[in-house]
Amino acid sequence: MYLMDNMVMKKPVVITICNRKGGTGKTSVAINLAAYLSRLGKKVLLIDLDPQANATSGLGVTNNQNGIYEVLSQKISLTDSMVATRGNLWLSPSSENLAGADVEIVDVENRESILSRILNSFIQNDNPDIDFILIDTAPSLSLITINSLVAADKVLIPVQAEYFALEGLGQLCKTIDLVKTNLQPNLNILGAVVTMYDARSKLSLEVWQELYRHFPHPIFRTVIPRNVRLAEAPSYGQTILEYAPHSKGARAFRRLTKEFLSLNK
Predict the structure, then answer these.
(1) Cβ contact 92:130 at 8 Å
(2) Residues 74-132: pLDDT tens digits?
(3) CA-CA 20 to 30 A from 148: which of 17, 30, 44, 240?
(4) Partner residues linked to 47 by β-bridges
(5) Residue 78 lies in a domain
């Protein structure tokens, strides 16, 4: 809880994990980063803002009928949507109902800022003891995704180690710049993290080098490898920390989390 008398209110850092391209390992980054932050003693809320609900199922949550869609629809509070999953990690789950949210909020005043207002109310009125709020988004630049950017302090961009993955990166950065200019002046890009990296592949190395040459924002030194265990874990409703804690993928996420924390002191 916050001590309000002689202390500055502690505010969670809100980070949107975003890429308009599918198959970049975005949800894997979201759930595994959240799990390792929790393991290191940080209190984390993960908001699943993707109608596919992969982060929800990946954390083993099946009762997801009172989740982020109901929050956006003002049927329940964000606090009431939160499911305790493991350790210091909570989830505001998604469901297929979220697919229609774009249409439902299109006529709402200040529609791009709905999630931002919800988070501000949550922080100011509910006094959550949370260090990080991570938002997993759909692979699109929908109105709901724009809401996630307006609500965020920083954006983390997973980039698959393939050439096609680089094509939409410039447009995503332009969109983030537009949001920063017009809607959220404090929004910044935390950095890009390379996913599905194959150390045996010349292509993976070339994509990583191209990213360093042309991406004008920070790039995490840690890369997330292609790893069978990482691919298998969500089907068991587990993070890599639980499913295969000694695997190559688990070691990579442990390093990524420490690097992430060094950038968010």
Answers:
(1) no
(2) 999 999 999 999 989 999 999 988 988 888 888 888 999 999 999 999 998 877 789 99
(3) 240
(4) 92, 135
(5) yes
Maximum Cα–Cα distance across the chain: 57
Mind listing the pLDDT tens digit for each residue in 12-27? 999 999 998 877 889 9
Residue 8 lies in a domain: no
Residue 139: give the domain boundaries: 13-259
Q: Identify the CA nearest to 71 among candidates 96, 94, 45.
A: 94
Q: Strand pairing of 83-86 and 89-92?
A: antiparallel
What predicted TM-score, i.e. pTM, was given to this entire model?
A: 0.93
Q: How far is residue 246's CA from residue 209's CA, in Å, rounded to a whole number?
A: 28
Number of compact structural domains in the chain: 1
Q: Which two tokens stand for residue 118?
A: 């919800």
CA distances (Å), origin 195, targets 30, 100, 157: 12, 30, 10
H or E segment and range at residue 145: helix 143-150
Rg of the chain in Å (alpha carbons): 18
What H or E segment, with its residue span, contains residue 192? strand 188-195
